[in-house]
Amino acid sequence: MNRYPLWKYLIVLAAFVFAVIYALPNVFGEDPAIQISPTRTTKVDATTLARVERVLKQANIEYRGTVLDETSAKVRFGDPEVQLRARDLVQTELGDTYTVAVNLLPATPRALQVLGAKPMYLGLDLRGGVHFLMQVDTRAVLKKASENAADDIRRVLREAKVRYVTVNRLESGAVETVFRDAAQFEQARDVVRKELRDLELSDNRRDSEYVLTARMSEKVLLDKHRYALEQNITALRNRVNELGVAEPVIQQQGQDRIVVQLPGVQDTARAKEILGRTATLEIMLVDEGANTGDTSIGTKMYRMRDGRQIPLKNRVIYSGENIIDAAPGFDSRTNQSIVSITLDARGAAINQRVTGENVNKRMAVVYIEIKSKSKLDANGQPVLDAEGRPVRVSERVEEVITAPVIRQQLGKRFQIEGLDNTQEANELSLLLRAGALAAPVEIIEERTIGPSLGADNIQRGFHSTWIGFAAIAVFMILYYAAFGVISILALAVNVLLLLALLSIMQATLTLPGMAGIALTVGMAIDANVLINERIREELRNGNTPHASIFAGYERAFGTILDSNITTLIAGLALLAFGSGPVRGFAVVLCLGILTSMFSAVMVSRAIVNLYYGNRRKLERVAIGNTAWHKA
Amino acid sequence: MEFFRIRKDIPFMRYALIFNVISIITFVLAVVFLITKGLNLGVDFTGGTVMEVSYAQPANVPEIRSSLEKLGLHDVAVQNFGTSRDVLIRLPVDVLIRLPVKEGVSSAKLSDSVMESLRKADPSVQKRRVEFVGPQVGKELFENGAMALLVVSAGIVLYLWFRFEWKFGVAAIIANLHDVVIILGCFAFFQWEFSLTVLAAVLAILGYSVNESVVVFDRVRENFRKMRKATVPQIIDNAITSTMSRTIITHGCTQLAVLSMLLFGGETLHYFALALTIGILFGIYSSVLVASPIVMWLGVSREDMLPPKKETAESTP
Predict the structure, then answer these.
(1) pLDDT tens-place string over residues A19-32
(2) Is the distance from CB of A264 to CB of A244 less than 8 angstroms?
(3) Which of A307, A598, B148, B227 is 20 to 30 A from A445 (CA-CA)?
(4) With 80 as the cut, is the pLDDT of residue B228 above it?
(5) How confident is the prediction for chain B on average, in pLDDT?
(6) Which residues of B, range 54-83, sit inside 8 Å of A by Cβ?
(7) pLDDT tens, residue by residue, A266-297
(8) What is the spatial distance between Cα A43 and Cα A38, in angstroms, rounded to a whole number?
(9) At CA B211, angle to CA B206 and CA B214, rounded to 5?
(10) Does B97 score more than 50 pLDDT?
């Protein structure tokens, strides 16, 4: 009656092995490490790594190992002090074209790594760092879009030689064009409908005037909205790379918010300065007359991506802020990758004039960025300030991305040709878009957690969970004897399973999440108590031990299911409506309910069956005193 | 070991009226405190800046206050946080509005200038935590929290309606909202800080406390089948009495875990654990002595509980 078929034991055993393997990495913790990532122009490969290793050996810095993956190289160390020294050393060796960041790497043994076992991902409140929540001003996006629509209408009407009175932008984002006579109005409507397909048109008469109202369709507006957000995220990601932060989080949250989390960063002022900074593009003419290396007044030498020098005329024709859009594409005639650029009205006007005057000359696209880096003294050591932090200095970095020949007069839309492949086209259009933010952002939430507080939080959360577990274990064993031991074993499997799931999912563990684990420990015992009490009750009613155990588990199951599902409902609602730390708590709560149901019902039953199931004559079970009722 | 040697059913339902009067009084008191005193909403909800700083030696709170006043920050709460060396500084959001905002100085930069002036007074000061929340975010969080409370309540009623009967759903949710209101009442009365994590605790209690009601209801349903001759109050009394041991032990265990969090979890989890503690204590009381009488008064009968199909569905889980 109390025997499990073999497969049920195997399931329990498999769950246990799984739980141990995937919870284990958390025991090994993490090694301090440095992460070397390439920037646009460089790659990280075996030679880079060899350079790094040579430098470290020369300086007598011991390292524990190196990892080379597709995007970066990582070197792990024994302690954090060595890590910081190595970071400065490697950064100096490799120069600005690489980003060297401090990082933590799991110290998980290789055998476990092969299985994909990783320690839990710790939230900022457990390891320190800064968190920003940014509000994207989407009204600015819509305003810009409607300005462009107005410009477009004026342009197509002028080109079609239609006379209009005014073109007005309305508060709602719609654009009204006013006409005096019906014929012009009709003609305008046809032209706009044909040329500007994104616009939805409606018309009405006002006194003696004909009014054509154009508005962007919901879909187009939504696209623009989404696009602005994507571009902002890309731009922020590029800027965060500058900070040399390992594992930053840059995510959309809700309709128009962006979360930026920078683990390990404490200097919020600098982080904000860099996040708020604008990288930009400038379009200049190539000084065809000047020779390489010779700089006359009005001409300056620039570096191209491949390292060649190119002389450019100093005057900036227009800059990145005039670029509305850049998209990679393919020219079907020449079979070449291209990037299509769209300029705003001002940029278009300038572009038209300048390119008209300079056909068959070359035009250069220059990428400009303000980079900051540690100030170094004469010996190549970083200069420290009064608080022992490296002093940062800013430097303007300029680079020519491309310098194509102007074939004809250009206007609002034009193409950049002469690119090697689609990848380059993708990168260039990304760069053109990524330089500036598509819409202004404002920091509406900012949290900084000091590293000492993070360590404190971990320790306290950990302690309180263990103390709670130990107290419950002592009580359960005293109260339920052998069944108490079984309950605690099941509870231990539950905690292991929960840790394993959290590690596998790489869910972010936060302080409320740790509280969730502690709470789950307390709540999970409920199922075991229900079962044990039920068994006692059945024994009191005079049933045989085997029948009591059987009935105890069977009868308690319905109750366990009902009571856990109600808690699960609460957990899911928290998950849906909560944000940040509350979600962390909710994830743990929901997972904890699932694992505790499994462990209380399957695991504890398996142990009981294994222990008692094969005894044909079972006189009594050790579940505490049940004799009083009969007496 | 055995704590509960109850041979006869305790006639809980005979005293149902008394318990309900007590419940109504505590409930009304809680509502009165909520209205008159209001919740002491944390920075999560109101917006504003909270800073936790730590000194090498015991902190001089009045000195910190005066150096903040020199910055033009009045209405600032400065208090010790856990130990005498740790200090919590709370700047309400309207402080920022009254500050002469310079070009390009966003409210988020405030913490930097505060740190600077504190460092001048005592260089040993360390930034442990800074949280700045805009008022808009806070308002949204509050709305989301209220929404979550509603969804959880509705979800639980629906589930219990589906699994038991509507009377049980209604009774359970009244009993549990009673717990929630009393937790909120305590927070209002003592003016404890009500933060986002406390809200999470309240919602967790809502789910957790229903557990209790469900366990009793489950037994009531079973008793309706087994005790064919008993009256409804007798059935409920027996259900409560026979689950008593389990109720106390389960809550005791959960309380052990929460207590350990309250004592050893540090300041950050303090109010979270406190809300759970109150919730657990009232959870036992309400599920046994509030939910069951309501079910009784809603007129639950044997016919409600005995749909012929359920009988078979129940025995094969």
Answers:
(1) 999 999 888 878 88
(2) no
(3) B148
(4) yes
(5) 83
(6) 54
(7) 777 777 767 766 556 788 888 877 665 555 66
(8) 5
(9) 120
(10) no
Q: How far is the alpha carbon of A538 from chain B, nearest alpha carbon, in Å? A: 12
Q: Are B242 and A583 in contact (CB under 8 A)?
A: no
Subunit contact A468:B249, Cβ cutoff 8 A: no
Side chain identity, residue B20 = N
Q: What's the mean pLDDT in A26-46?
A: 78
B142: contact with A, CB 8 A cutoff: no
In this structure, which amino acid lies at residue B203? L
Q: Between chains, do B129 and A457 touch, taking CB under 8 Å as contact?
A: no
HSE, CB side, 13 Å, CA atoms: give it for residue B109.
13
8 Å CB contact of B112 and A269: yes
Q: Do A579 and B127 touch (CB under 8 A)?
A: no
Q: To probe the interface with B, which of A258, A441, A464, A517 has the most B CB atoms within 10 Å?
A: A464
Length of chain A: 631
Q: What is the distance between the alpha carbons of residues A472 and A232, in angstroms, rounded to a whole number?
A: 50
Q: What's the whole-number average pLDDT of chain A?
A: 82
Q: How far is A346 from chain B (nearest CA, A)?
A: 27
**8 Å CB contact between A367 and A359:** no
B278 contact A CB<8A:
no
- The alpha carbon of residue A78 is apart from the nearest alpha carbon of chain B, in Å, by 26
CA distance A546 to A526: 22
The residue whose two tokens read 């990280």 is A44
B255: exposed, middle or buried (Cβ count in 10 Å: 0-12, 13-18, 19+): buried
Closest-approach residue (CA) in chain A for B154: A569
Which chain B residues are closer than 8 Å to A447 by Cβ? 129-132
The two structure tokens encoding residue B307: 């749909």
Strand partners, A339: A328, A416
Please state whether the predicted TM-score (pTM) of the whole model is above 0.90. no
Q: What is the DSSP letter of B289?
A: I
Asked whether the predicted pLDDT for residue B208 surpasses 50, the reply is yes
Q: Which candidate from A268, A456, A469 shows the least CB-CB separation from B112?
A: A268
CA distance A491 to A468: 12
**CA–CA gap between residue B282 and residue B209 (Å, rounded):** 9
**A239 CA to chain B: closest CA distance, Å?**
19
Alpha-carbon span B262 to B198, nearest angstrom: 13
Q: Backbone dihedral region of A223: left (phi > 0), alpha (psi from -120 to 50 degrees) or beta?
A: alpha
Q: How far apart are CA A192 and CA A202, in angstroms?
A: 12
Which residue from B minimizes the CA distance to A574? B148
- Name, in order, each residue with C-beta under 8 angstroms of B125's C-beta and a sequence gap of 6 or more: B53, B54, B55, B115, B118, B119
Please calculate the CA angle A165-A169-A172 and round it to the nearest 5 degrees. Answer: 140
List strands edge to edge, sheet with A363-374: A299-303, A309-319, A280-286, A363-374, A392-402
Q: What is the mean pLDDT of residues B44-64?
A: 87
Residue A430 Cα to chain centre, angstroms: 18
Q: What is the pLDDT of residues A507-532, one digit of tens each?
A: 888 888 998 998 888 888 888 998 99
Q: Which residue has the tokens 């190289």?
A: A73
Q: 3-class SS at A151? A: helix
**Identity of residue A435:** G
Provide the CA A186 distance to its chain's centre, in angstroms. Answer: 51
Q: How far is CA A230 from CA A52, A133, A256, B58, B241, in A?
A: 35, 15, 10, 48, 60
How close, in Å, is residue B230 to chain A by CA atoms?
19
Q: Do A169 and A160 form a contact (C-beta atoms < 8 A)?
A: no
**Residue B316's closest CA among A566, A266, A36, A557?**
A557
